[in-house]
Amino acid sequence: MVKLDEKNKEEYTRSVINALKAENIKAFRNLFLELHPTDQVELFVSFDQSQRQRVYECLSPAEFADIFQGLELEQQKEYITELDQTFAIAMFNSMSADDLADFLGELPDIMAETYLNNMGQKDAQDIKNLLAYPDETAGAIMTTEFIALATKDKVSHVLQRLKEQAPDAETIYYLYVVNEQRKLVGVVSLRDLIVARDDQLVEEIMSTRVVSVSVLDDQEEVADVIKKYDFLAVPVISKQGKLVGIVTVDDVMDVVEEEVTEDIGEISAARGAVDLQLSSFDAAKKRAPWILMLAFLGLISAGVIGQFEETLEAVARLAVFIPLIMGSAGNTGTQTLAVVVRSLALGTLDRVGVGKLLKRELGTGVMLGLICSLVLVLTVPVIYDGDLVLGVIVASSLLAALSVATVIGAIIPLIINKLRIDPAVASGPFITTLNDIIALLIYFSIATALLQYL
Questions:
Q1: CATH number reported for the structural domain that contains residue 235 in this entry
Q2: Backbone φ, ψ for residue 19 (5° rounding)
Q3: Which of 90, 176, 245, 382 has the fewest CB atoms within 10 Å, i.e. is most exposed?
Q4: Domain stops at, among 85, 113, 135
Q5: Both 167 and 122 in a single domain?
């Protein structure tokens, strides 16, 4: 198998394209199929439509299935229109059930139904069963292509069966044992089978301490289980305890990427708009609600400043420090938000405890405030003609604002999480704006109280 690097990629690509142009099917297949599947996908998407048509003629449906599974969803939707229906159906029959279900689930119902009706009855039924599970659950991301063993199977028979069925299974490193009612009762590793005697029964070598997930468990919980136990796959059971599928580590990696992308969108108030495939109009439409809400909160900030108009008129130089106070409080709150959301996502907060977290973040805010305040109380009088009172006002305001900002940045995502809403919804811009308002109130309250000394 050849793996392309930057140095030979261009030359190798030229060789593949030249074989295509010359319609030298044998040369193309030798060059193309020798590549790593990931490099095959990258090379395929670089082809123009006429070159892709030649690829469809050179590869079998089963060979192209590996490429199709590696494409992004939007690319799959584009290229499926170029395929002959007979070729597409044969390709679908060679694809993993979970990957095919993901693709068909994104198509219009009529189109998906047409494909399913032309597929093999068993494969089509497996896909329909997967599509019936709610999105973002274990059932929706699992595959039904696994090998189940019976307790009374002999090791020699299992090894022979593996040789026959392994090519169609998602993974064979762990095999799951079921009883007569298809209920999950044990697990056997491939290593256990290899070292066991041929005449031993599966029930003699299996482990009964099986970690599993339910079909309706959230996909993030499934990812947590695989991460916690370092699994390559985890079995999925129904409410009745029957084994219905497995979720593999590669599917979990996709889940993690999806969840991280979603959290980034939430924290940056750009949910659904981080996809670079979106047009400017669609991106603006998804961002607009947050921006409008933040603009409304900005009016509240302006209202706070308006309430202290007399203070500003009396000492105009107070306005100079508004951006400093607001920016510092907002940034500190966003930092705490990131810490809390990450802790909730990893489950580390349960081990630390909410009280300890709040205490730590408050302490962090106080220490940050003291450091910044010390710098300001020394530098402000130097810059503003020895005005020590102004320095004290700015320094004490910043100390209080940063202390409060860290607490708010921690409490809001915790409350949202308690309401069973994604804590990332407590987005950075939202926390920043809220802390801006509170910081302004603190600043002008202190300034007003000490106005007579300015």
A1: 3.10.580.10
A2: -65, -35
A3: 382
A4: 135
A5: no
> Is 427 exposed, middle or buried (CB count within 10 Å of its CB: 0-12, 13-18, 19+)?
buried
Which domain covers residue 380, as residue numbers? 280-453
305 and 241 within one domain: no
Residue 64 to residue 228: CA distance in whole angstroms: 35
Quick one: 292 and 382 in the same domain? yes
Residue 110 identity (one-letter amino acid): I
Looking at residue 317, the DSSP 8-state letter turns out to be G
Q: Going by DSSP bridges, is the β-strand pair 243-248/233-237 parallel, antiparallel, or unpaired?
A: antiparallel
Query: Do 230 and 185 reside in the same domain of the chain?
Result: yes
Residue pointed to by tokens 């597409």: 88
Does a structural domain hold residue 152?
A: yes
Among residues 25, 60, 67, the alpha carbon closest in space to that of 46 is found at 67
CA 353 distance to own-chain centroid: 25
Which neighbouring-strand residues pair with 235? 246
Count the domains in the chain: 3
| Per-position b or e across 175-192, b if 16+ CB within 10 A of its CB | bbbbbeeeebbbbbbbeb
Q: Can you read off the two tokens belonging to residue 41?
A: 């996908």
Q: Are residues 397 and 336 in the same domain?
A: yes
Six token digits for residue 294: 């933040």
H-only helix segments in 347-387: 348-352, 354-383
- Residues 10, 37 within the same domain: yes
CATH code of the domain covering residue 71: 1.25.60.10
| pTM reported for the whole predicted model | 0.62
Residues 6+ apart with CB under 8 A from 121: none
Q: At what angle do helices 322-346 and 354-383 cross, to 10 degrees?
A: 160
Residue 154: the pLDDT is 94
Q: Which two tokens stand for residue 162?
A: 């593996």
Eight-state DSSP code of residue 425? G
CA 222 to chain centre: 13
Per residue in 228-256, pLDDT tens? 888 989 999 999 999 999 999 888 887 77
HSE-CB for 329 with a 13 A CA cutoff:
33
Q: Determine, yes or no, domain membership for 389.
A: yes
Under a CB-based contact definition with an 8 Å cutoff, are residues 233 and 207 in contact?
no
> Are residues 49 and 123 located together in one domain of the fold?
yes
DSSP structure class, residue 215: T
Give the angle 168-81-14 at the CA atoms, nearest 5°. 80
Q: For 274-296, what is each residue's pLDDT tens digit?
A: 455 566 777 677 666 767 776 77
152 and 118 share a domain?
A: no
Residue 222 lies in a domain: yes
